Each structure stands twice: as structure tokens, then as C-alpha cells.
């Protein structure tokens, strides 16, 4: 009886331990085993060195999933195809974690997105140089899907050459063009160019150019000396000192308010003059009239002196008396 109880307790302990272990694994990430996923695959016809299993997959920088498989088309789809007819593509499969509804929607929209230009590219992640798979929309005319004859196991998404790969290919093509270039011809052309430059240099009038340069430098030296003499002239210094003194006085007058007082005094004087003229307007007119009469008299006297200088000093004959007509 005691032995059977012991077995029961042992069984309960084992079952409890297993349940606890399963719960811990589920909390630590095991629940991903039961989460729906969406898998798609893409093909590359060039090397994807640097892309490894587990590499992140991003759609325009947003994390989307990870690379789950990297295989060759020969081992996956072309086992029964002759060697001379094999495509020899690299098959990359991507696992996207999503809900059942999102996975169904992705599978439904995959063909339409491919037609609109959604392509998979290998990219370098910053300074680390780690490669990841990038999804983005490109021109479908420039990046058409690769040709193949098999039926993909998962949803197919076309690929596009990576920008880093294109740069490397262009660099390799440039180096290849350099290797194919005629080094001997380039060397001969360079030698001819050097000889031609040397000949042109010998034909230059070096003596004449040197004499002109010395003349220009002499004139420039004389100009600088003249400027130096002007700067050192005491009269110029005195002029600057006077200007500074005047500026200082004007600043002092402006700061002390003398300009405002002068302006106010002139305004007051103008107002008083205006009042004075308004009050004595009749007298002023009489004075002006007298001045005009005096001026006319002086003009007549001056003309008389010019005609009869002796008569003006001693006295002239009396004016003739005109008798009435009835007395004549």
C-alpha cells in the first residue's frame, strides 16, 4: 500500500514537472511554434555571399521576418534536369511571422505586389557589413522575374540585383577594361605628350616675361611706398584726428541734449516772430511803403544829380508858371 502511494506521488511529480517545463518553454518562445507563419521564396542568379540563415528580412526598413533556408535550385527543383539545362539559381526562403489572417492576405496579394514591382534584394547593414534581405518596390521593367520551369513549393517573389553587387560588378568591369587596354600605346602617347610640353616650354620668351614681371613688381613696390608715405603724412593723421574730434563733439552734443534745446529755441523764436508780425501787420506795411517811397526819392535825386549836378548843389531855376488860357 505504501509502495503504491509512493508511485502515485512520483507520477504526480513527473507530470507536474513536465507541465512546468512546457509552460516555461512556451513563455520563453515556444509559443512561436504554434503561431501561424507565411513563407515565400525568391531566386538569385548571382552570388549572395554574406547572407546567412536567420538574417533579418525587412520591408522598407521595417522588420518582417528572417531567412529560414538557403539552397540551390539544382538540389531543390532540378535533380532530374540535365546539367546543361539547369538554371543553377540560389533559392532563398523567408519565414514571416504573422497571424492566420495576415498570412492569408499576404499569400493572396503576392502576385499583385510582384506585378507592381515588389522585389527582394540583398543589402548591407551599416558599418557592420552584415547582409540582410530587403523588400521594396522597384521598376518591374528594369527588374523582370527570372525564368524557371518548376512549380515553387511556396509563394514566389521575384528578386533584383543588390546595389552593392552592381557596384562590385561595375568595378570589376572597369578593371577588366583596364587590363584589355593597350598599355604600350598609352605609354607612347604619354611620352609624346611630355615631349610636346617640353618643346612648348622651351619656346616661351622667358627673358621677356621675366623683365615684364620685374617691371610690374617695381611699379607695385613704388605704389606701396607712395601709399605708405600718404599713410605716414602728419596732415592726414591731423585730418583723421580733427574728424574724430568733431565726431566726438557731435556725439557729446547729441548725448547732452543740446541739439534738442537748440531746435526747441528756434521753434519758440519762430512762434514769437509769427505772433509779432501778426500783431503789427499794419505798421509793418506802412514801414515797407515808406521805404519804397524813400527809395523812389533817392532814385529821382540820383538822376537829377546826373543831369544837373550844379543845380542839385546850388539850386536850379524856378519852374515855369503856366498861365490859364483865358489870360493870354
Structural class: alpha/beta
If you average the pLDDT, what whole number results?
78
Helix count, DSSP H or I runs of 4 or more residues: 10
| C-alpha end-to-end distance | 199 Å
Number of DSSP strands? 7
Report on the biggest sheet. 7 strands, mixed
Low-confidence stretches: none
Order of helices and strands: HEEEHEHEEEHHHHHHH
- Report the principal-axis shape: elongated
Main-sheet strand order equals 5-6-2-3-4-1-7
Helix proportion range: 55-70%
Number of domains: 3
Task: State which percent range the strand residues make up.
Answer: 5-15%
Instruction: Tell me the radius of gyration.
Output: 57 Å
Account of the 3D structure:
The chain has 328 residues and is α/β, with parallel strands linked by helices. It has ten helices and seven strands. The protein has a seven-stranded mixed sheet. The longest helix is centred in the C-terminal third of the chain and has 27 residues, at 206-232.
Which helices and strands appear, and what pairs or packs with what?
Layout: H1 2-27, E1 37-44, E2 56-59, E3 62-72, H2 73-76, E4 90-97, H3 100-116, E5 118-125, E6 130-137, E7 155-156, H4 163-180, H5 183-202, H6 206-232, H7 234-256, H8 258-279, H9 281-307, H10 309-314
Parallel strand pairs: 1-7, 2-6
Antiparallel strand pairs: 1-4, 2-3, 3-4, 5-6
Sum this structure up briefly:
The protein is α/β, with parallel strands linked by helices and 328 residues long.
Amino acid at each position: 500500500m505504501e509502495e503504491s502511494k509512493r508511485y502515485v506521488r512520483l507520477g504526480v511529480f513527473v507530470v507536474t514537472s513536465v507541465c512546468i517545463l512546457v509552460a516555461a518553454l512556451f513563455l520563453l518562445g515556444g509559443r512561436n511554434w504554434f503561431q501561424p507563419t507565411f513563407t515565400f521564396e525568391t531566386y538569385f542568379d548571382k552570388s549572395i555571399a554574406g547572407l546567412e540563415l536567420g538574417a533579418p528580412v525587412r520591408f522598407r526598413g521595417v522588420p518582417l521576418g528572417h531567412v529560414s533556408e538557403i539552397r540551390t535550385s539544382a538540389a531543390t527543383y532540378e535533380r532530374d534536369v540535365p546539367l546543361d539545362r539547369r538554371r543553377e539559381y540560389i533559392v532563398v526562403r523567408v519565414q514571416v511571422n504573422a497571424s492566420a489572417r495576415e498570412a492569408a492576405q499576404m499569400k493572396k496579394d503576392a502576385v499583385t505586389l510582384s506585378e507592381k514591382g515588389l522585389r527582394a534584394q540583398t543589402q548591407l547593414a551599416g558599418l557592420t557589413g552584415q547582409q540582410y534581405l530587403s523588400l521594396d518596390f522597384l521598376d518591374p521593367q528594369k527588374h523582370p522575374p527570372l525564368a524557371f520551369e518548376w512549380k515553387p513549393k511556396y509563394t514566389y517573389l521575384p528578386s533584383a540585383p543588390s546595389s552593392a553587387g552592381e557596384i562590385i560588378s561595375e568595378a570589376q568591369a572597369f578593371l577588366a577594361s583596364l587590363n584589355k587596354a593597350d598599355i604600350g600605346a598609352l605609354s607612347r602617347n604619354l611620352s609624346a605628350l611630355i615631349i610636346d610640353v617640353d618643346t612648348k616650354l622651351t619656346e616661351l620668351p622667358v627673358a621677356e616675361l621675366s623683365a615684364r614681371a620685374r617691371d610690374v613688381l617695381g611699379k607695385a613696390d613704388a605704389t606701396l611706398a607712395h601709399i605708405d608715405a600718404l599713410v605716414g603724412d602728419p596732415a592726414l593723421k591731423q585730418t583723421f584726428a580733427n574728424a574724430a574730434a568733431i565726431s566726438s563733439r557731435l556725439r557729446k552734443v547729441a548725448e547732452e541734449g543740446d541739439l534738442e534745446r537748440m531746435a526747441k529755441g528756434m521753434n519758440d523764436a519762430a512762434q514769437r516772430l509769427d505772433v509779432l508780425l501778426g500783431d503789427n501787420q499794419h505798421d509793418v506795411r506802412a514801414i515797407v511803403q515808406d521805404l519804397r517811397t524813400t527809395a523812389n526819392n533817392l532814385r529821382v535825386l540820383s538822376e537829377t544829380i546826373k543831369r544837373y549836378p550844379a543845380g542839385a548843389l546850388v539850386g536850379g531855376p524856378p519852374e515855369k508858371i503856366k498861365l490859364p488860357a483865358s489870360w493870354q
